[in-house]
C-alpha cells in the first residue's frame, strides 16, 4: 500500500497556539509526538517510509521534513509553492506514485492533524476498506455521528456492500435541526476526509471530472526533486477533492471508521479528548482558579488567574490571549480572520520559534530592524547562510560562540560582539557543552525569514 498525508492546513480555529507558520499538525498537544508524527507512525503500519508522501506548503516544508526525519529520513515531502486545496495536492502526489510505482497499487489518504488513538481498530477499518478498493471503489472512512455536529459535512449511505455501503450523496455542513435528523436516521456519517482507492481509479476519476488538473500532471517532473513548479501549480484550480471528484463519482463507497477519531478542529474538541480534574477543567501551565468548572485554561508563560467562570476557554501565549465561551469555540476562526485582515504578526509566528538547533525569541521590531534573543544548544549549529537585504549584529550573553564569516573563524565571548554584513557568508555555531545565548539585531530594507540563502546545513535544509 502507498500513503498520502495532507499537511497544508493552518489550524486557525486553534489560534493563538496554532499559527500560519507553525500550524496544529506540528504541535504535540501534550503528547511525545506531534499530530503529524502520529499520523506518519500510523501510516507506517501499511507502507514503507519511502512510500509515504506528505504534501505541504513550501512555507512548512522544512519543519515538516525535520519532524518526519526524526522517524525515518527516507520519507518523501512534496512542497506546494502555494495553497490550492486538496484536489491538486492529492493529484500531484498520485502523479509521484504513478512515475515511481504501479498504478494498480492502493493508496490510503489522510489529513495530518487528526487524533486517532486506537490503532488496532484503525487497522481493521483499513482492511475493510481494502476489500472494496480492490473492487474498484473509492472508499471513504465515515464516522458514526455521536451528536448533531454542525461543523462537519455528512455522507448519506444506501445499499450494503461486502464491508461497507454505497454512497448516495455528500451533504454540506447542516444547521442544528438538520443535523439532529441526520443522527436519528442512522444512515448518515461524518465526513472525516480519510479515503482509499487504487491509484489508477483515482487518476481516471480526476481525468474524467477534473481535466484542468489532470492535463497538468504529466508536466510535473519529479526527477530533480519534490518542489512543484510555481507556474504549473498556479495554473491548476483551487478546489477540494470532495467538490472535484467525490461528489461526482459513481464509484464511491463508505466503511465505518471503527476507531476513535477527533479532528481537533476547535478548542472544545481538544477539551473533549483531554483528561479533566475533579471540577471538569483542563488546566495547563501557571493557572490559579477559584470556583471554575468545565473549562479549558492554558498558560504558556504568564500566570493566569480565573474566578467564578464556567464553560469557558482561555488560552495565553507570549503575545496573545484568547477567551471565549466553550460552545462558541468554532468562532475563534472569525477572530483569526479579523487579525489576518489587519496583517497582525500574531497570526503568522509565535514570539518564540523552535528550530532543530535551539530556539529564538523576537523581542522588538520596527521599520527596518528586528531584535531577537537566540539560544543555540550544545554541539549544534545554524546553517552556513547569507542575506541579501539585511546585516546582523551579534552580542554574546552566555557561552562561547564559534562564528564562521567569509571563510574565517572567530571565537566570541560574553560581552563581545561581531558584525555580519549584507551578503556575508556566515554561520553561528556552538561546539561546546553549555548553551550559547546571543542578542541578534537585524537591520535592512527587508526583514523576513525568507531572506536566507543556505549553502550548508546539517539538518538537510539546503
List the topology elements.
Elements (H helix, E strand, L loop, with lengths): L1 E5 L28 H9 L8 E6 L3 H9 L6 E5 L5 H15 L5 E6 L7 H16 L3 E6 L10 E7 L4 E7 L4 H10 L2 E11 H11 L1 H7 L12 H5 L6 H6 L5 E5 L10 H7 L8 E3 L2 E4 L5 E4 L4 E4 L4 E6 L2 E6 L6 H10 L10 E4 L2 E9 L2 E8 L3 E2 L2 E3 L3 E9 L2 E5 L2 E5 L4 E4 L5 E5 L5 E9 L8 E4 L6
Parallel strand pairs: 1-2, 1-4, 2-3, 5-9, 10-12, 11-13, 12-14
Antiparallel strand pairs: 4-8, 5-8, 6-7, 6-8, 7-9, 14-15, 16-17, 17-18, 18-26, 19-25, 20-27, 21-24, 21-26, 22-23, 22-25
Helix pairs in contact: 3-6, 6-7
Task: Give a quick rundown of the structure.
With about 450 residues, the protein is of the alpha+beta class. It is built from eleven helices and 27 strands. The protein has helices spanning about 35-45, 60-70, 85-100, 120-135, 175-185, 200-210, 210-215, 230-235, 240-245, 265-275, 330-340; strands at about 1-5, 50-55, 75-80, 105-110, 140-145, 155-160, 165-170, 190-200, 250-255, 280-285, 285-290, 295-300, 305, 310-315, 320-325, 350-355, 360-365, 370-375, 380, 385, 390-400, 400-405, 410, 415-420, 425-430, 435-445, 455.
Explain what the structure shows:
Strands 16-17-18-26-21-24 form a six-stranded antiparallel β-sheet, with no helix packed on it. A five-stranded mixed barrel has the order 5-8-6-7-9. A four-stranded mixed β-sheet has the order 10-12-14-15, with helices on one face. By secondary structure, the chain is of the alpha+beta class. Helix 3 packs across helix 6. A hairpin with a 2-residue loop joins strand 17 and strand 18.
